[in-house]
Amino acid sequence: MFITFEGIEGCGKSTQAKRLVNRLRELAVPLVFTLEPGGTTVGQKIRLILLDSRNQHLSPLAELLLYAADRAQHVEEVIKPALEQEKWVLCDRFFDATTVYQGYARGLDMKLIVTLNEKASPGIRPDITFLIDCAVEVGLERALKRNKIQFQEGQDRFEREKKDFHETVREGYLHMAMEDRERFVVVDGTLKEDELEELIFRHVEPFISQ
Asked: Who wins on pLDDT, 9 or 142?
């Protein structure tokens, strides 16, 4: 079982991913929890480049290729081996993020993005993708507050994008979810954390005994 969490900055996806991990571990479900970018040692170095707010000059194409490089290493080193061992994989962002951020929002060639995603993750596709949806104003306020608390204000290159950018990201996610309703589960990111956790777990619970 491969489950991914997606959404705009500050939507709460990382929190909910960790909550689901804890629930599954309590039930002794063998799993790997990972994230993009940064799910490997190589990926952690790429993540620092991508999120560093000093790198405003980073071109959209370079950004896309860095994400593809991170994903290729991530799939080969972490995701593929875990799935082959029949472990569950829970991932905070995957190739859908590249489609919306670099495709919808940056305006890069979608055919190129599809090709790179396929090359970086050959044959690997999430079984369930939880899209944690909330208004841009809500997400950005949360994200900026989080960065201050965690002393990560220098790692906020995407949070510094204009509001229109984030609106396009949200619209891209919702469009993709409508196009692939079998895989996407859209949930309300403004619910209380406990309520959202229960809602997500109810979608996952039927697969635990399989």
From this structure: 9
Residues in the chain, total: 210
Q: What is the pLDDT of residues 91-115, one digit of tens each?
A: 999 999 999 999 999 999 999 999 9
What is the rounded average pLDDT of the residues 199-209?
93
Residues 171, 196: Cα–Cα separation, whole Å: 21
Tell me the C-alpha distance between 176 and 181, whole Å: 8
Cα–Cα distance, 113 to 29 (Å, whole number): 33
Between CA 8 and CA 174 the distance in angstroms is: 11
Domain boundary assignment for the chain? 2-208
**Maximum pairwise Cα distance, the chain:** 49
Q: How far apart are CA 121 and CA 115, in angstroms?
A: 10
Residue 37, preceding bond cis, omega within 30 degrees? Answer: yes
* 2-208 maps to CATH 3.40.50.300: yes
Q: What strands lie across the sheet with 2-6, from one edge to the other? A: 31-35, 88-92, 2-6, 128-133, 184-188
> What is the tens place of the pLDDT at every residue in 32-55?
999 999 999 999 999 999 988 888
What is d(CA 39, CA 74) in angstroms, rounded to the nearest whole number? 6
What pairing do the DSSP bridges indicate for beta strands 128-133 and 184-188? parallel
